[in-house]
């Protein structure tokens, strides 16, 4: 057991120093990315784009950064170089219309060999939290497998699932659910 | 803040040592008397909870108010009693006695009380001595009495133990209130944090304070340890908090990514849902995270582990049939047996304290309801009423109640219901956020 001190709103384990360092690095990476992509049009909603309910210019969740970092900072939906793909309800197979998106994402990765991508699996709000985290993992793995078959090195692609915890759209209907059932591609150097 | 927490830890230790609630000696010739009251569907019994007689040191009634207020709330939450409005009480607790023969039952009969609680308090420094009795008004008989010694900070807990004893005297079965509730809430912000509180809503403690995602609290039997999942390191991991020592450890799961878990009743082992290559399977691991044994092996989804009270059986959710369904298997290994066939989305199983039943959530028309099913298989029974989405059932330690989350109100709240008569008794949480993932502990210190 690691001794912990009572923080302001909970216990802080000694590991959190590392976590904080990772978070700071993550923010730095994001800022660097934002600087690199500053010539692109700003997303609709701009910096007030909080809570994840606003649309990006070309639809939902096209941000280039890590969704949990964006969520923490209340800046969901920043533009990124790679596009999201979407899934049918409770499914994790790649849909036909998304193979062109994945091919285009793979081309970008081939043109930018120094980059790494984390594929984030997301789900709609229906179903239990835990089942959805596992479902999101299936979705992120499906995209990773597809990118690898397109020739991207597997070591450049990591996966993570956020289940239904980070919706980009918060209405309780299919128009939102279909946008939330997604893989998001977060880019890092 | 830290000093308060430490003080609480010390107090709790004192409580455990000193307030097992010694039974007051029964009257000569009288053994414990049990009266069956208020079965499902029948009318509530009426109970008056009198103020306590101050034998010294509680001139401002702080101790008496804490005891009486907590006891009234707990008896109300039990679903068996209607508390008679204190304004109707005729007798002055200070000028009358509290022992049999020292007060007039007619004062309570005339306000239609079936039962009355009377008692006394003496306080000196931080120490509190409290005595309370439960009387049957119609039969003019003492049913039960308890003495408690402890600290001023222990008084609400004394009341919870007395409420449990009142239920035992009146229904034949100990009540569930000397326990804790853990839950996840977004109150005060956007982020899901883990909290603990008493069942009656006091002693709210915010366990996590990280602006990420925290989920799935589960207690061991003693309620000393609490396991939960957190993304606070930006990737999901299990954390085991020691609520007594006020510290926690991150589990180092060997490889793969952990998506949830539950701690065994004896706190020695954990079953965790771990993803490897996209597939999520269940693993028996040590409390440090080392793998003991892989329990499921499919290329799909196996989540929501629940361990039976005797530690022998695992219930979980799997999509191996094509939809999420509940299965049981021996924790020693072997083939899982499918339990649920009704509905195309059944998940979050929870074993009853006796281990004979499972509660779970089942989807119908896009919303969930709570159902129960015999743990060995059989006919499922719907226990919630289709009002809102009802999720994450968790049993009370006595097995009579379920806590669950429901969207029946404006926000998602934790509610308590009586399983036997399907009566929704009350919300257990309030505030501006959404509450989910309730976990009802066993009785404290057992």
Strands, helices and their partners?
The complex is a heterodimer of chains A (189) and B (446).
Chain A: E1 5-6, E2 11-12, H1 16-36, H2 67-72, E3 85-86, H3 99-111, E4 116-122, H4 129-149, E5 157-163, H5 174-180, E6 182-188
Parallel strand pairs in A: 4-5
Antiparallel strand pairs in A: 1-2, 3-6, 4-6
Chain B: H1 2-18, E1 22-23, E2 45-56, H2 62-77, E3 81-83, H3 106-109, E4 115-124, E5 127-136, E6 141-151, H4 155-171, E7 180-185, E8 193-198, E9 205-206, E10 214-219, E11 225-230, E12 237-242, E13 247-250, E14 257-263, E15 269-276, E16 279-286, E17 291-294, E18 302-307, E19 313-318, E20 325-330, E21 337-338, E22 346-351, E23 357-364, E24 367-374, E25 381-382, E26 390-395, E27 401-406, E28 413-418, E29 423-427, E30 435-440
Parallel strand pairs in B: 2-3, 2-4
Antiparallel strand pairs in B: 1-6, 4-5, 5-6, 7-8, 7-30, 8-9, 10-11, 11-12, 12-13, 14-15, 15-16, 16-17, 18-19, 19-20, 20-21, 22-23, 23-24, 24-25, 26-27, 27-28, 28-29
Helix pairs in contact in B: 2-4
What do you see in this structure?
The complex is a heterodimer of chains A (189) and B (446). By secondary structure, chain A is an alpha+beta fold. Chain A has a single domain (5-188), classed as 60s Ribosomal Protein L30, Chain: A, CATH 3.30.1330.60. Chain A has 5 helices and 6 strands; from the N terminus they run ββααβαβαβαβ. The model of chain A is unreliable at 1-63 (pLDDT under 50). Chain B is mainly beta and 446 residues long. Chain B folds into 2 domains: 15-171, TolB, N-terminal domain (Rossmann fold); 180-440, Neuraminidase. Helix content of chain B is 12%, strand content 41%. Chain B has 4 helices and 30 strands. In chain B, the strands form 7 sheets. A 6-stranded mixed sheet of chain B has the order 1-6-5-4-2-3. In chain B, strand 4 and strand 5 (127-136) form a beta hairpin. In chain B, helix 2 (62-77) packs across helix 4. The longest helix of chain B has 17 residues, at 2-18. The two termini of chain B are 28 Å apart.
